[in-house]
Amino acid sequence: VYSDRKDPPVKELMKERGAPFFHFPLSFQSEKKREDEKRILEHLKKQGVEWIFLAGFMRLFSGEFLRAFEN
User: Fold this and answer.
1) CB within 8 Å of 4: residues ≥ 6 apart
2) pLDDT band with cut points at 50, 70 and 90 for residue 14
């Protein structure tokens, strides 16, 4: 689970279930958005993530970010 919040309620649940939790603080400034997305994409790829599910979790991602997982 990835979150832009440091301590969301799901963090404790992930800990209890032995699932990973990653915190990625985001700037939400348009000039930094691409940099933030790049950092997250690099981490997702290092983790071998093939699917992403967006469930009210962060803010709007760019089409470029989403296309990285379109297949």
Assistant:
1) 23, 24, 25, 26, 57, 58, 59
2) very high
Which one-letter amino acid corresponds to residue 40?
I
Question: What letter represents residue 6's amino acid?
Answer: K
DSSP string across 1-67: -EESSSS-HHHHHHHHHT---EE------HHHHHHHHHHHHHHHHHTT------SS-SSPPPHHHHH
pTM: 0.72
Beta bridge partners of 2: 22
pLDDT digits (tens, 9 = 90+) for 22-69: 998 877 677 788 888 888 899 999 999 888 887 665 567 888 888 888
Burial 33-48 (b: 16+ CB within 10 A, else e): beebbeebbeebeeee
